[in-house]
Amino acid sequence: DTRRFLDDSHGRQQLRLSRSVLHLRGRTARSTLGSTAE
Questions:
Q1: Three-class DSSP category at 1
Q2: What is the pLDDT of residues 1-38, one digit of tens each?
Q3: How far apart are CA 35 and CA 19, in angstroms?
C-alpha cells in the first residue's frame, strides 16, 4: 500500500512537471511567433 501510494504521488509529480514544461514551451513558442509576426 505504501509503495503504491509513493508510486502514485511520484506519477502525479511527473505529470505536473511535464504539464508545466509544456505550458512554458507553448508560451515561449507563442512569444517567438508574435515577435516574428511584428
A1: coil
A2: 788 888 888 889 999 999 999 999 988 888 887 777 65
A3: 24
Sign of CA dihedral 23, 29, 35, 38: negative
Where do we find the cell 514551451? 25
* pLDDT value for 31: 85
How far are the Cα atoms of 6, 14, 23, 32, 37 from residue 10, in angstroms, in the given order? 6, 6, 20, 33, 40
Radius of gyration of the chain (CA): 17
Distance CA 22, CA 18 (A): 6
